[in-house]
Amino acid sequence: MTVYVAILKGRQPYLQALAEASDQVKSIIRPLIEVFPRRGDTEVKRLITRLAGQIKAQTLADVDMCFDTQPLASYFGPSGRSEALRRLTDELGVHAFRPVVHLGDTGEDLEELREVIADQQMGLCLRIPLSFAHNLDYPRDLFDLLGLVGESPERTDVILECGHCEAPAETHRQLTQPMRRLLEYEWHTLTIAAGSFPSPKDFKPPPEPCITRLPRAESELWCRVSTAWRTVDYGDYGIDHASAPPADGEQPAPNLRYASGQQWCLYYWPKDSRGRHSTFYPLCRALMRSPEWPRSGPAFSWGDEQIAAAAQEERGPGGGAQWKAFALSHYLALVTSTLQQDAREEDGYVSMP
């Protein structure tokens, strides 16, 4: 079964969507959580205590996760990432997660991470940007890196990251040489990750209700990848752009980042005349009348249940964090159901029309 590596921000809506996911979703998902500070975070301890508390409160401690704390280095100094991983170990316990290392990490970085990796005893996750992969001296560069943290390829999850993808055919062509070299070795898992959700800077408050449909380039890329390399796993960035999250404190107009098949469907409604979110209700009604709405309706995911309840005005309109949780919940269900359908078709089962 193909594993789904969802690269997600370590924020409340993303953790909530994971917590509310069905057993079907949880059975094949391996989230990689990127740990970013919020505005007002002045120390690593406070940030990790909050994150670990959310994970435990959402009963996510048993989910197979990786944690990437590299973003903290630019806020708290180079030792911030290793301190965060040590505090996550203290909060969540050993055997709780795989630490993430990067191809560009220095020997000093890796020396600090070595102890955490040894304590967790879960192996590690190695992120390799496709833009750097062509310059690797295989296998020396990768094996030198693994040697510095005391791990082997057999205990390493490799993620070859394409980042933001706009031209699937060209990206697939660029993958050919790095994949040929990577497949010469026995990794624990090998994942190709890409995303095509637009950048936050492209979002502008709409003057009137607006539905924008864009191609999901990562879906087309996966069709090519899964045909060429059947043993690789699928990865993406959920309902986000591959870049860092926008600043905290933004109050967006009602919106849903909804996905369907080969398309992103971006629903944006302006705020009501009082600057509030009551227009989320007609947004949800419009979505439920659209071809994007799943045939199983609210039963498709927890997020779709919440959207249907809002369409009937049986719950409050919520805000940006809730809308992200609803949309991500739907997206996780969509991706996992697609991967499982692909697996059934490979095994000779005929999928439902």
Secondary structure elements and pairings:
Elements lengths: L3 E6 L2 H8 L3 H4 L5 E3 L9 H14 L7 E4 L4 H4 L3 H13 L4 E6 L4 H14 L3 E6 H4 L6 H10 L6 E9 L3 H15 L6 E7 L14 E6 L1 H12 L4 E4 L18 E6 L2 E6 L11 H9 L13 H10 L8 H27 L7
Parallel strand pairs: 1-2, 1-9, 2-3, 3-4, 4-5, 5-6, 6-7, 7-9
Antiparallel strand pairs: 8-11, 10-11
Helix pairs in contact: 1-13, 3-5, 5-6, 9-10, 11-12, 12-13
Considering the chains and any ligands shown, give keywords for the structure.
353 residues, alpha/beta, TIM Barrel, 8-stranded parallel β-barrel, 3-stranded antiparallel β-sheet, 13 helices, 11 strands, 41% helix, disordered C terminus
Task: Give a verbal description of the structure.
It is a single chain. The chain is α/β, with parallel strands linked by helices and 353 residues long. It has one domain: TIM Barrel (Alpha-Beta Barrel). The protein has 13 helices and eleven strands. The strands form two sheets. Strands 1-2-3-4-5-6-7-9 form an eight-stranded parallel β-barrel, surrounded by four helices. Helix 12 crosses helix 13. The chain is globular, with a radius of gyration of 20 Å. The protein starts with a strand and ends in a 7-residue tail after the last helix. The relative contact order is 0.13.
